[in-house]
Structure of DUF4268 domain-containing protein:
Amino acid sequence: MNEDNKTVDVMSLKQNNLETSLALYNNIGKMKKSFVEKLKLDLRINVKNHSRNLVLRNMRVDNKYEKFSFGNVKNIGIICFEFQDYYNKPSLGIRFSGKYRNSEYANEHKNRINSLLNDSIQNKQFKSSNWWVAKDRFEPFNWSSSSTPWEMMKDDTMATKILDEVLEIYQILVENDYEIT
């Protein structure tokens, strides 16, 4: 019997277990939202206390996912942490601002920035897309079935990890003459 079957058996063993399981299921979204609100606060505090000129902007797209930007890369886009699904599958990198996505320089920026980041940051594989100059999966990546990211938010280490990786990207861009505001 696998772990999922054991869990279902325990959940349905007694009426009390069933009611508790349904109550937990019905509140998972609220819990995730609460933890992400704490993450936002932790990020704001960490950004405010940092010597770099980072500006954290939360840009809620819809109820499905959120993204945070940490500075504008002049004439390109934003340094961005974004969930690809409902508080799951986060990516970190440089996201095009709408008007620059189709510019004549878009491919040049994609190639140069991907090359810079991949050559400079170990254990990452930045790639581009229509919306991203360069992005990589942020680890931990699977937030829907792992407690690790939620534990990291609870113990205040997730904001530090995100900011450390943002600052690594920021530093590489600045060292290579990209202007960030």
